[in-house]
Amino acid sequence: MDPILTAPRFDVATLGEMLIRLSVMAGKRLENASQYDVYPAGAEANVVTLLSRLGRKTCWVGALPNNPLGRLAGNALRVAGMDTQGVIWKDRGRMGTYYVEFAEPPRGTNVTYDRAHSCTTGLQVDEIDWDVLLDTRLLHLTGITPALSPSCLEIVSQAVRRAKEHHVPISFDINYRQKLWSEREAAQTLSPLMQGVDLLVCSQADARRLFQCTGSMIECAQGLLARSQARIVVVTFAEQGALLWNGQDWQHEPARPTRILDRLGAGDALAAGVIQGWLDHDLAAGLRYGVTLAALALSQHGDMVVTNAAELLALCQGGSSLVR
User: Which of 268, 280, 282, 303 is the catalytic position?
Assistant: First the structure.
């Protein structure tokens, strides 16, 4: 396989961990819940399933247990229209899970992870089909996977190295998770991985606490670009939207108004929108797609956004929210 001489099979490929999310609505507590809402999830899978629904050819590489929970996750990829060739089915091991307790003020939403010793955390470098993963126009990675285990860190490091050797562009979403590792450990580990990537996505909060990028929105983006030497950085600012900076030009896109039903997955949706624009060689449109998809994610239950290209374009063009 030579990505330079042959057309890539996929528009976007990724690797990471899928989990099963069990959640209770605001007003319920996990410790006495009698029923849960069940959703497949995972930062990388959230991105590529959404891109698949937008018409892109995508692939997720990772390990799933060959049991009902693993098949539930695999079915979510198929329903989105994705290629599942990269799934590594395991006869032993478990599916990582996490529990979400939604809440209204004065309490905040609480997340409890139960992902130790999952199939993905035990995955080894020699189990990855690199020909599949690198047969793509863009390799998408996040800062979550390196935190899962030493072998996952080695896999992501190898993915970055091999992608650069094969001239495969890389997008990297910092996606810091404080329940997985400390700020210092995350900054030390992620700094070399993000160097020179083609597209770097990071929240303002993560840019500040991991890389000491402060100041105005543009100053924060400038600091992150200087720290990473990325071609393009996109910094998200919650209710203030997102800002894109490439060292010469910048663009700010305000957040779209929405009613928040479920906060999880909004950052992944924004990353998917930016990638959609990157694939079309239209970053201005990508930023609009990103904030629109983030609003959709906030207004839907579950981590994986369900939409299509026609709906996205209509919403970006000011489509009505009235009943149709």
Answer: 268
